[in-house]
Design goal:
With 59 residues, the protein is an all-alpha fold. It is built from one helix and no strands.
Length: 59
């Protein structure tokens, strides 16, 4: 007996995870709450300047 033929059909293995019927989110939610590259660079520069001006550090 061929047991592979019993039961329901299996889903396609090459199906994309993206579902175009759901639509795409807009704004900050589209990035999953991530900051933009410009925002990240600004934060990194501010942190670098804060480390430079902080007295008593050996770094």
């Amino acid at each position: 007996m061929d047991y592979s033929k019993s039961g329901g059909s299996k889903p396609s293995k090459n199906a994309p995870r993206f579902d175009p019927t759901r639509g795409t989110p807009k704004g900050k939610d589209a990035q999953g709450g991530k900051a933009s590259k410009a925002e990240l660079l600004a934060r990194m520069k501010a942190a670098s300047e804060a480390r430079k001006t902080e007295p008593g550090t050996d770094g």
